[in-house]
Specification:
With about 80 residues, this protein is mainly α. Helices cover about 85% and strands about 0% of the residues. The protein contains 2 helices and no strands. The chain has helices spanning about 5-35, 45-80.
């Protein structure tokens, strides 16, 4: 395998870390918004529904913020290593 091919695979492996956080955050935000606009979809208990909604919205935003943080660090590392 050529060095160029190995570098491409390594770059995308590093990028997969923050892409996973973006996808997980978007999924949690989607779930939170779905429970906000369609109450009683998951359970009949309104307290549980609100806890799930607030928790998924909060964790979704946290995952997206961490995704941006990791994206910045990983892209700087890729540029420094000239991959």
């Amino acid at each position: 395998m050529k060095e160029r091919t190995q570098n491409i695979i390594y770059k995308w492996t590093l990028r997969a870390k923050y892409l996973f956080l973006f996808i997980a955050g978007a999924g949690l935000l989607s779930f939170g918004l779905q429970t906000f606009f369609q109450p009683n979809l998951i359970s009949k208990n309104p307290d549980l529904e609100s806890i799930l909604m607030i928790g998924s919205l909060l964790f979704g935003l946290i995952f997206i913020v961490f995704g941006f943080y990791y994206k910045k660090d990983i892209e700087i590392y890729i540029r420094q290593q000239q991959l």
